[in-house]
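Reagents: none. Just compute today. UDP-N-acetylenolpyruvoylglucosamine reductase.
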Amino acid sequence: MVKAGKLLANEPLAKYTSWRVGGPAEKMYLPSDKDDLIRFIAAQPEHEEIFWLGLGSNLLVRDGGIQGVVINSRGRLKEMKLLDSARVYVEAGVPCAHVARYCSDLGLTGAEFLAGIPGTMGGALRMNAGAFGGETWNIVDCVEMINHRGEVSKRDKNDFEVAYRSVKGLAGEWFLSVELILTQGESVLSQQKIKALLERRATTQPTNKPTCGSVFKNPPGDYAARLIEACGLKGFCIGGACVSEKHANFIENQGHATSADIETLIDHIRTQVEEKQGVSLQTEVCIVGERI
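Predicted 3D structure written out:
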């Protein structure tokens, strides 16, 4: 029996983003599973704009919202399975932290760093997300892609140009799933490593506040947080958006921030760092949607 997903109209995106800001999605589709999503995309007009949403981290949706269709993969494209002794299949909607624990429980090592990434596997693939010295594409074997016509293809990692927080070669395609290649090890040691990474994250980052994760990419040979702090910007606020006192590369929503507040603060930080430190910071966060 074919199970269809749900199509919502004018759906507020603030409740789906980790910053808790953002205007409405013109349309939002909640697929029932991967096959349903493939059918839905194949049925869309060629001109329809399609945007994928996972956990809503690393994302700033402007106050005017997003036109077209937002595909909400969170909790939907969620299958994980062991393919052989060292390869794991993961669909794009699975949270990275779940992948880390799943692999650890299987006694597979190499994916522990994913516990520190507050997004889905699809988002991690899109930007080559990393944490604690690990990067997503270092453990990728191959990926499954879908294009605007609903055509699915399997692609080797060498088909993409992968760099620090950057993946090129995605024009008109999106990630459906990935096969990770890992190393056989011991569950106990892997679990201990994950625990240590999460404790370190809680100590150094404002994990209990509405943030997007790191706002800026680290420039070569330096750290964005160091440069921002050197400009005296820790605790600096615009509207309801403030530079975190705990980690200067995080912007916190104090409860009443708008997307415009956050974007204005991002621009202010970039200007200050360039003027005072001579470094042009590049955003890691993806800024999308319409301004009001």
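The chain has three domains: 6-72, 80-204, 224-288.
Action item: order primers for follow-up constructs.
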